[in-house]
């Protein structure tokens, strides 16, 4: 199975610290571990401009191919407005060059951009040689990271209801939806039914997958201090996270208990927060600085109004920082129902004081919270759910193409004869293409003919019991040893 992933990079100059990319990297790591036949294509900005390395996206291994191309409006003063927008000519060109010109193909597209999907779909259909009367050879799955619901992005003057409606329509009309947060899945129909058919929405949600934004907790050491000394305020300074309230609580904790404050932020930190001697600040913090402060901090506070299963606060909690959480619907997917660390916004300050005064009880409550989060946001669980969804989709395509091949025609007969001329156990697509020259009248390779496409080769092999091994470059297929085994019509190896 071959998967193309296009994540939104809302901070393209620091891709390795990007939460939406980290989710996808976790999936990819699990897919590679759980299924030895998966091959992943990343479509990302150039490393030189987006500040990441090949190993950050697992592209330092054989079954991951990195496609680098400038995204729309990249490098301009307004790029932050367009990091979720459509595809550039360079991006489409690199898909052709690095996938299809190497006789590769795509089974599933996991697309997180809010716009431009119709162009990508058209391009992939063209490159795959799709015919109007045949099944689509791939599915497009929309990865819903942070749905533009009416109560979100209220201060963004460059967005309005047109963009909100368009994003919802694009999501429910795609082949599939993956939701990072239950809040988005539950609120989509509330907003969407104002302008879309109930049936369209229900059909989309019936097959939707909840990915729950997995976190690799093995990276963090849950170690608690004997007594609290540091409040750690981390992440961006966006208004929805109420940094002013957090600083008020920080001032109170210092005044009452001598608790000092650490700031680590992906942004600049206002001087009004950093001018105090009891504040240690790391603006535009590197991962190394952030990780060091995870080990140093003792208390964390989440005051955000809404989020899509955020990572930072739970990374803090998993590092031994007792986490006090504002009670909002989005956190219900993450925390135990009766946790004393979850309180209304007006009680965040008093609960932070309770944590300091009842440190042992607070640590025990945080340990229980993390035990819960480890389960619901397990990488293995998220990997299995998303992999199962993709595998099902590809196996359904194989069934559809089996029916097409049963009807038979001269071009499919030619592909079948070419398969018979190759190694019976292992066939590379370029070898199959060349073998076709021995079975057609003009002596030309199969793909030199208008009537033959890469899709014809791929599904002819799958229908005959071959599976893609997931190799780099030109795909190599192997025959499933037992034609009666469960792997007979599967994209996985037996």
From TrEMBL:
Region named Disordered: 472-494
Protein name per UniProt: Glycosyltransferase family 1 protein
Source organism of this protein record: Halogeometricum luteum
Lineage, uppermost ranks: Archaea, Methanobacteriati, Methanobacteriota, Stenosarchaea group, Halobacteria
């Amino acid at each position: 199975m071959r998967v193309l992933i296009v994540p939104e990079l809302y901070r393209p100059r620091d891709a390795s610290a990007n939460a939406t990319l980290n989710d996808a990297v976790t999936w990819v790591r699990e897919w590679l571990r759980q299924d030895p036949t998966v091959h992943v294509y990343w479509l990302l900005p150039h490393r030189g401009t987006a500040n990441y390395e090949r190993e950050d996206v697992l592209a330092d291994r054989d079954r991951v191919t990195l496609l680098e191309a400038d995204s729309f409006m990249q490098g301009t003063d307004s790029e932050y407005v367009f990091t979720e927008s459509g595809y550039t000519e360079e991006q489409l060109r690199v898909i052709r060059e690095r996938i299809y010109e190497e006789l590769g193909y795509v089974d599933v597209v996991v697309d997180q951009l809010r716009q431009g999907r119709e162009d990508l779909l058209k391009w992939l259909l063209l490159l795959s040689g799709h015919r109007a009367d045949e099944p689509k050879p791939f599915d497009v799955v929309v990865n819903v990271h942070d749905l533009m619901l009416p109560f979100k992005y209220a201060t963004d003057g460059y967005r309005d209801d047109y963009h909100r409606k368009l994003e919802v329509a694009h999501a429910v009309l795609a082949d599939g939806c993956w939701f990072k947060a239950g809040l988005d899945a539950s609120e989509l129909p509330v907003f969407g039914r104002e302008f879309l058919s109930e049936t369209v929405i229900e059909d989309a949600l019936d097959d939707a997958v909840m990915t729950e934004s997995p976190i690799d907790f093995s990276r963090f050491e849950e170690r608690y201090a004997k007594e609290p000394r540091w409040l750690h305020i981390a992440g961006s300074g966006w208004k929805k996270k109420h940094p002013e309230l957090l600083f008020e609580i920080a001032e109170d904790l210092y005044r009452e208990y001598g608790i000092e404050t650490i700031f680590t932020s992906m942004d600049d930190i206002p001087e009004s927060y950093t001018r105090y001697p009891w504040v240690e600040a790391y603006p535009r913090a590197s991962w190394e600085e952030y990780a060091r402060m995870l080990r140093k901090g003792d208390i964390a506070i989440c005051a955000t109004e809404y989020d899509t299963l955020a990572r930072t606060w739970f990374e803090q909690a998993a590092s031994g920082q007792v986490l006090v959480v504002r009670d909002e619907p989005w956190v219900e997917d993450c925390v135990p129902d009766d946790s004393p660390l979850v309180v209304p916004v007006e009680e965040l300050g008093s609960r932070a004081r309770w944590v300091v005064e009842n440190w042992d009880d607070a640590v025990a409550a945080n340990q229980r919270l993390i035990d819960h989060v480890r389960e619901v946001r397990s990488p293995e669980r998220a990997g299995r759910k998303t992999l199962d969804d993709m595998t099902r989709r590809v196996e359904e395509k194989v069934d559809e193409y089996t029916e097409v091949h049963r009807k038979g025609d001269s071009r499919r007969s030619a592909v079948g004869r070419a398969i018979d001329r190759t190694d019976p156990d292992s066939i590379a697509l370029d070898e199959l293409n060349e073998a076709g020259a021995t079975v057609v009248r003009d002596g030309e390779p199969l793909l030199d003919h208008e009537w033959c496409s890469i899709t014809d080769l791929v599904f002819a092999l799958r229908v005959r019991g071959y599976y893609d091994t997931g190799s780099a470059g030109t795909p190599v297929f192997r025959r499933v040893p037992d034609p009666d085994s469960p792997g007979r019509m599967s994209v996985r190896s037996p």
